Every structure is written in C-alpha cells, then in structure tokens.
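Quick start: what a row looks like.
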Amino acid sequence: MKNESKTLYIPLYGKACVSRKGIILNDPDAERIWQAEGFPLRGKAKSKWLAYYMGMRSAVFDRWAAEKMQQNPGAPVLHIGCGMDSRCNRLAHVRQDRLWYDIDFPDVIAERGKYYSESERYRMLPGDASHPEWLRQLPEADGAIVIMEGISMYLAPDALRALLSALRSRYAKLHLLMDCYTEFGAKASQYKNPINTVGVSRTYGMEKPRQLAEECGLRYLGEMPMAPQDMIDQLRGGERFFFRKVFAGGFAGKIYKLYAFEA
C-alpha cells in the first residue's frame, strides 16, 4: 500500500478509540477493523488528543452529510478518499436506498473488500482523486453530495482544481464539504506531523477558498467548526479544558480549516 494510502490508519485508529470510549462517534466497524489490522502507529499518530480530533472531524462530516441527504432526496453520495471509513453504515438510517460510492486508490479499495460488501446501491470504486476520469463510470444524476475528508492536503493545487472542476461539470447541483491545511499548516506538516510516521512528508495548503470556488464554478459557503462545543463537552474535566485550548483554539485554526461549497 502506498504511503498516502497508509494515512487512512490514523483516522481509523481515532474513530476506533472514541467509539470504544462511548463518546463522540459510534463506530463498531472502526473498532472491528482496527483490531484486525493492528497497523503499528507511533508517536503523535497514536495520541489520544489526535484520536479525539479525528473522531470529532468524522462526526462533523456525518452531521453535514446527513443534513444534505435529508435536504436532497435521491442525490448520490460520493465519498472521495474513503479509506476504511464506515460512514456508509453509520448513516444507513438516512442513506436508505440512495446510491453511495466510496472511492479511493485501488489498493485501498482492495483492502476495504475484506470488510465491506457491495450491493445494488453501494459501490466501492477504485480511483485516483488526481485523475478524476473515474467520474465517467458513474450514472447520470442532476446533483451529488460530495465528501472529501482528509484528502485535499495530498492533492497539488492544480489537481485539486481539476477534481472540483470535473465534479462541477458532471453535476448541475453539488454539495461539497472539504477539510484543508492552510499554507502554514502544510509547511508545518513537514515537522512532527503524525502522517510522517507512515512516510508522507509532502502536503499542500490552501488559503483562498472563495477564489478556488470561483475558479471551479462553485459557491463558497463558509468555514465550519472542526470541533463543535457539544463534542468537546463529551470529554472529561481536564481533558476537556486542554482540548478546547489546544485543538479548538486560535492556533489550531491557523493550521487546519473546514470549508463548505455548493453549486
């Protein structure tokens, strides 16, 4: 599995960790897969603070996706860079019979096949986000709900623009949620970043979401909180105080952003 693919084990561990604790995210699939895989994470990659952050990030994406599915009945969901995530199951009560596509590198999809099964309405599609020709394999639809969690920072600016432009060309109506490093965050990621433990040192940042949206034919809706207060409140006393100050404070916002777009 290539190094970019191995980064999937970091959020997988985080989701399994919070799920076992009974906070933030209920994810029995993450618990099961993590126990079976046992990938050796080291240092910050296995930090409980990062685990909490990964759990919150996924829960925020879940809330957003559930809301968009309720507002857009029948719109297919495209989870680009799905890793081993079980969002398709966590949101089964909202998803019901709509089409859902989990998309990632071929080696990741092969690994997913050990734990997930396709159905008439659920597909796992091998595809490189940097080369979105795989979009042509999807059936025609007026609109789509697009989840890009933990992937934009591995795409060079031109590749990110190409992907968003291809999505916009494919769908007249589009809802997109994407987390991004800032340029400062991308530079800082070269040092003491958990992804370094799986051999990734090159990441990309983005400072002008409104300009990116305009270049790709989208509308920029604004920034969303990565660590909502109600999720922070699920942590215990001292942990809650430390997490709020360090991971939900002003400095964290200088490194990492969550942006919503639509068309």
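That is the whole record. The chain has one domain: 3-262. The mean pLDDT is 89.
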